[in-house]
Specification:
Blueprint: E1 12-16, E2 22-28, E3 31-34, H1 42-52, H2 65-68, H3 72-89, H4 94-111, H5 121-130, H6 135-154, H7 181-190, H8 196-207, H9 211-214, E4 222-225, E5 228-234, E6 245-249, H10 252-258, H11 279-292, H12 300-313, H13 318-325, H14 330-333, H15 342-353
Antiparallel strand pairs: 1-2, 2-3, 4-5, 5-6
Helix pairs in contact: 3-4, 4-6, 8-10, 8-12, 13-15
Length: 360
């Protein structure tokens, strides 16, 4: 049915959106429901019939690709399948896949009926501008949409990328707050050596790793190179072509922490139930530990930032910091040399880091 034709369906209201598209709503009594797709499409009629009969439409009713062809929902489904294949091939991180799939899935709930092949840039701009109050989440949405449409153009599904030229929403925040010496001291006073919280702090300080790596580190990652004990692991973030192999000499405070209770075997960090933490679970637990220590607005990632600043203050070079953090490009650590001896640089960095007094 052409959208400029009269709709002969009871209780349907059609509204013109700011970007020029149409929204269809079912209105009867107290019931107000936006319908997916366009009139006469399978998803539209299924939802309409359900509401007409007084039942709740199945918002997650499975639809074939043929039934949704050309819609945003269709494109998201294809891109999600592509991401799953990329994870299997090792060219995309499972974490990236999960994050983008969740973001795009939420986007599809409201905008899945739109025409993906001809959606104008102004429509995406309006959606992004509406999210200005939540710049972090909205910028992640733009990043996910940009990745999807770039893939769609590269594979010939779309002729143009409607996100091209759109800018992220500016934020006043500089990101996660980096910890200082006072923060570290307060945390250790509340969580002394021998606690899981203190163990987590020691690993975070002396490896500068991300949460996604922290929850997987265990004794199998301890190796000895030329008589020097090291932690060696491949970062979880990025695909096989992007993930960095990080090898870091183990300083005495870290060695004591990971070889003494409560450190586990295959994973150093264990929950109160004796199980490894999930990435999200550790984040929530660490937040509680911070609040117990009177440290609001502090996070595990803030320690990673603090480690970078401490390394720099200790006189470490850009490449030495990159070797510890696993940075891979100029956007993160200024200049990156792929031929650099990362272990040698890490040794040099940790020698300097070892001169810092750590208290407990």
């Amino acid at each position: 049915m052409a959208e400029n034709m009269k709709i002969n369906l009871p209780y349907i209201q059609r509204d013109r959106m700011r970007d020029g598209s149409w929204r269809y709503r079912f209105r009867r009594g107290a019931t107000r429901k936006t319908l997916p797709g366009k009139p006469n499409s399978p998803e539209f009629m299924a939802a309409y019939d359900a509401l007409l009969n007084g039942t709740t439409p199945a918002s997650n009713a499975p639809l074939t690709l043929a039934e949704t062809r050309g819609t945003v929902r269709w494109l998201i489904e294809l891109y999600t399948r592509h991401m799953a294949s990329a994870v299997k091939a090792g060219t995309m991180s499972p974490l990236t896949h999960k994050q983008r799939a969740n973001i795009l899935g939420r986007f599809a709930l409201e905008h899945g009926h739109r025409d993906a092949l001809h959606i104008p840039t102004r429509a995406i701009r309006i959606i992004i501008n509406k999210g200005a109050a939540k710049p972090g989440a909205t910028n992640n949405l733009l990043k996910s949409l940009r990745a999807m449409f770039k893939w769609a153009v590269d594979t010939g599904l779309c002729d143009t990328d409607p996100t091209a030229g759109l800018r992220k929403i500016p934020t006043n925040s500089s990101g996660f707050i980096a910890w200082d010496a006072t923060d570290l001291a307060k945390f250790q006073q509340t969580h002394p050596r021998g606690t899981t919280a203190n163990l987590a702090l020691m690993i975070l300080i002396f490896t500068a790793c991300r949460r996604s790596d922290l929850v997987k580190l265990g004794r199998q990652h301890i190796t000895e190179i030329d008589g020097l004990k090291c932690l060696s692991f491949t970062q979880a973030k990025g695909g096989n072509n992007e993930r960095q192999r990080v090898t870091i000499p183990i300083l005495p405070p870290l060695y004591r922490a990971i070889t003494s209770p409560p450190a586990g075997e295959m994973t150093f960090l264990m929950s109160a139930q004796g199980k490894p933490f999930s990435t999200a679970g550790f984040g929530m637990r660490f937040k509680k530990w911070c609040l117990q220590a009177g440290l609001e607005n502090r996070s595990a990632h803030g320690i990673r930032k603090a480690a970078g600043a401490l390394l720099a203050n200790a006189g470490c070079t850009q490449h030495e910091i990159m070797a510890i953090h696993g940075h891979a490009d100029a956007r993160t650590s200024d200049i990156y040399t792929r031929t650099a001896d990362r272990l040698t640089l890490a040794k040099s960095a940790m020698d300097k880091f070892a001169k810092i007094e750590w208290g407990t």
